Amino acid sequence: MNEIESLICKIQKTGDREAADCLVRLYYDEIFRFVRKQTVNADAAFDLTQDIFIGMLRTLAHYDGKKASFRTWLYKIATNKTVDYFRSRAANLVETLPIDEVEPVDETDFTRQIEDADFAGWVCALLAALPGGTQRIFRLHVFGGYTFREIAEGLEMPEGTVKTMYYRLVNILRKEFSDYDGQG
């Protein structure tokens, strides 16, 4: 039994707070970075990360290591909470999206644009209005660094479907933000 499995077992069997603290500490920075890339706001990322770990600890009794690795399961929780976060704020975020104030850009460099904080915020605002499954795939691949195979396994979908949904969304985003150049 590895360290993660041992901590999970202690938490599931006895509610061991020390083990829970250790488990959270092992993944906190990684999950915070995943959320921070998407929220573009440190305070919102902090709050959302807290919600993710609270949700993880509340549902840990239902975790089954035979179905997915703990990391995959945790990212699924993080992605679901992030999707919920943006859905709950979609109306306000979309209203502030200044699409008409942007300038031309080379469409082939779309994925590098995601690294720009303002652009990532606008993309996340647009994502918030999309179906949850599509959001999850995009967020896991772009912000979480998961491969299509890992996403397919985690979401229990065919890999081809994951790729199709991802590339369809990327094409929509390319068209939507074809005028963005990162200069303001």
What's the short story on this structure?
With 184 residues, the protein is mainly alpha-helical. 72% of the residues lie in helices and 0% in strands.
What are the key terms here?
mainly alpha; 9 helices
Beta-strand residue fraction:
under 5%
Largest sheet: none
List low-confidence stretches.
91-108
The gross shape turns out to be: globular
- Over all CA atoms, what is the radius of gyration? 18 Å
| Residue-averaged pLDDT | 79
How many beta strands in the DSSP annotation?
0
What's the helix count? 9
Alpha-beta classification: mainly alpha
Ends distance: 51 Å
Please indicate the count of domains. Answer: 1
Helical residues, percent: over 70%
Written account of the structure:
- The structure is a single chain.
- The chain has one domain.
- The protein starts with a helix and ends in an 8-residue tail after the last helix.
- α4 crosses α6 and α4 crosses α7.
- The radius of gyration is 18 Å and the shape is globular.
- 72% of the residues lie in helices and 0% in strands.
